[in-house]
């Protein structure tokens, strides 16, 4: 059985990170609900959309497709099966719990907040509510999990940072694409990223056996 050595993320630090993430997400949700972010959202949205070019629009469409639920959950299913075949049952369970919880949390918060979508620049707005961004949440959860696995055996922090850069860039690109297309406010994307971080700290690979924090 191939052994995957996990990064030195302790139970205490993981739980502290998760708690901080959930607290930030709650504060952000309250700020959105009472209207404190409206000016920032509007200014940032217009700034990103001012970059519009045919090339960027095509790139945004590609990133949007990569971050879509069918693609993300399809890739997650493939990775989970691969982990099972490699006898990493706990890692497969963690991934399934991470993505399942993200899906349910996204639905719950969207209906709880019932935030209307901005007026889209390209095409029509999705029928679902705006906060948080499901694309940002799912992409950050999945690619964040994969990034943690890829860097698990790297002993040096600089090596892990270099290896994580493509994953971080892809996640950020998907979030910016949603803002660029006008289907999400910036705080929707930020909320998705923050919630994903909290869930990764809760369900992400942590110790030598790939077990989530208890």
From TrEMBL:
One Pfam family name is PAP2
One example of the protein's molecular function in GO is: hydrolase activity
> Which stretches are transmembrane?
20-37, 66-86, 91-109, 129-150, 157-177, 183-203
Tell me the keywords, alphabetical order: Cell membrane, Hydrolase, Membrane, Transmembrane, Transmembrane helix
Q: Where this protein primarily resides, as one coarse class?
A: membrane
Record keyword Transmembrane helix present: yes
Which Gene3D superfamilies does the entry link to? Phosphatidic acid phosphatase type 2/haloperoxidase
Keyword Transmembrane appears in the UniProt entry: yes
What are its GO cellular component terms?
plasma membrane
The annotated topology with respect to the bilayer is: Multi-pass membrane protein
Taking every annotated instance into account, which residue ranges of this chain make up the domain Phosphatidic acid phosphatase type 2/haloperoxidase? Answer: 90-204
Q: Do you know which SMART domains this protein is assigned to? A: acidPPc (SM00014)
What name does this protein carry?
A: Membrane-associated phospholipid phosphatase
Tell me which species this is from.
Hyphomicrobium sulfonivorans
